[in-house]
Amino acid sequence: xxxxTQTPRYLIKTRGQQVTLSCSPISGHRSVxxxxxxxxxxxxxxxxxxxxxxxxxxxxxxxxxxxxxxxSRSEMNVSTLELGDSALYLCASSLxxxxxxxxxxxxxxxxxx
Amino acid sequence: xxxxxQSPPDLILQEGANSxxxxxxxxxxxxxxxxxxxxxxxxINLFYIPSGTKQNGRLxxxxxxxxxxxxxxxxxxxxxxxxxxxxxxxGTQGGSEKLxxxxxxxxxxxx
Lengths: 113, 111
Prior knowledge:
Mean pLDDT of chain B: 92
Shape of chain B: globular
Oligomer: heterodimer
Largest interface: A-B, 29 and 25 residues
Structural class of chain B: mainly beta
Largest sheet of chain A: 7 strands, mixed
Number of helices of chain B: 0
Mean pLDDT of chain A: 93
Low-confidence stretches of chain A: none
Strand content of chain A: over 45%
Largest sheet of chain B: 6 strands, mixed
Number of strands of chain B: 11
Helix content of chain A: under 10%
Strand content of chain B: over 45%
Order of helices and strands of chain A: EEEEEEEEEEE
């Protein structure tokens, strides 16, 4: 069974631009969560989607948004990019919500210049 | 919110040595996972262990939920074990897939 896939793997943008990242969960998994990893803040939760609905959101500004499609694939969007948005963005999927092992994708490295 | 502390922050070993990594958490948990992050950034699941003991080859983990800590044991370490090990938990409030991560233990295994 294929693992979690994320596209693109690397991205360079300039301040003020917007970016869309994509995540395809493991087949059959319905829950998708997004995390941001930076050297200063570590791994931080962005949001969680289940059945096309955002179920939980971390402490990030409204510039960060996401959605989930009927096939459980998910996208996250960051508008008006800032230098501090440079990070590794990780997507995780699990079969259902609650008390389930989460499996992570390889991540998208975003560099904002 | 729940707090997760990992120790030690850095660990340097010679190949073949054993090690113990610790994870303390501040509240009851439904979900506790150990991950290994490789040099390319991929988080690899090691254990899903909210309580009890599990073993997988040279790795084993124990979580004592009543005392709010988990231990990851690495025996006969190899250079490929190098990387950052993270403990992540979810509180017992339920209804959330939010994982709270510790700051990690950076392990370096020298040949």
